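User: Sorry, what's this?
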Amino acid sequence: MGHDQHHAHGGSGNVLIIATLLTLGYAAVEAGVGLWAGSLALVADAGHMVSDAGALVIAAAAAWMAKRPVSRLHSYGLGRAEFLAALINSIGLLVLIAWLATSAVQRLQEPLPVHGEAVVVTAALGLLLNLAVAWLLSRGEKNLNTRAALLHVMGDLLGSIAALASGLVISLTGWTPIDPLLSLLIGALLLVSSLRLLRQALHGLMEGVPLHLSLEEVGKAMAAVPGVISVHDLHIWNVASNQVLLSAHLVIRRCDDWHRVLEASRTLLHDRFDIEHVTLQPECLQPQPVQWHDRPVGQQAP
């Protein structure tokens, strides 16, 4: 069974690599043709494809780095590199969007000729490529990475359709303003995903509570564990996007109950919130009557 699981994960990784290479390769073609044909819509669609491929590369690289063993200098490993890479990626995308928006406004004010036929052919080929990549991903292993990649490809499909529509309108009517208008539409779609990526990157770097978790909900659930009176100094953060850590102080009634409370709390956090890396410190409301002395037993204090 272990061999089958290894083969499945390897197959999923190969599918993602092939999809990423195809996407990046054709994005370069689209960008080159877009600059030659004077089509901002093609350049915008190429930028969208690069952003999606970049997200896949970042996820794959971060997953590889997260598997690296901890070291003397990095006791948590290198999982946080995912957030740093996402931050760099999102900033680069915002720069691209600003250039697209500025160029589109200039094109609306001073229209330039666009080779509509070249745009149609390139966008149509891009649409076919995206359909092929979507089919490839749908045939692969169904896991979180492939589902996320499939969603990215669906976004690329919309961009290719917009660029194709731009080329068709220009070829049939000669109305060139459609190109910068549709490039602004693609840029708006790209802006939404870029801001979302930027938010996640900054939130992770600032050690914020993972966005899918509620600090209040987790705290109330932990306080409801039998034997727990209250919870304080609760902290939840990410080392990597899929690695959640938690630490807290638990006030309990009796120190003798700690082993049972600890196991119940760990089970709760794992089963309900999918948190595995947990550090909990007990605080006994009524500590046991054990006294420690720095003198032999039976010796009277002076």
Summary: The chain has two domains: 2-205, 215-284. The chain has a mean pLDDT of 78.
